[in-house]
Amino acid sequence: MYAASREASSRAREALSAALSATGDITIATTGSELFAVVDVLDDQRSLRVALADKSVSSSVRAELAERVFGGKISAATLAVLTTAVAQDWSRTRDLVDTLVVLGQEALLRAAADRGRIDAVEDELFRLARIIEDNPNLEQALTDHATSQQAKRELLARLLTGKVEDITMQLAEQAVGRSRGDAGIAFDQLSELAASLRKQIVAYVRAATELTQQQREQLAASLQRIYDKPVTVHVQIDTSLLAGVVIRIGDDVIDGSAVGRLRRLRQSLA
Question: Where are the bilayer-spanning segments (predicted)?
Answer without folding.
Answer: none
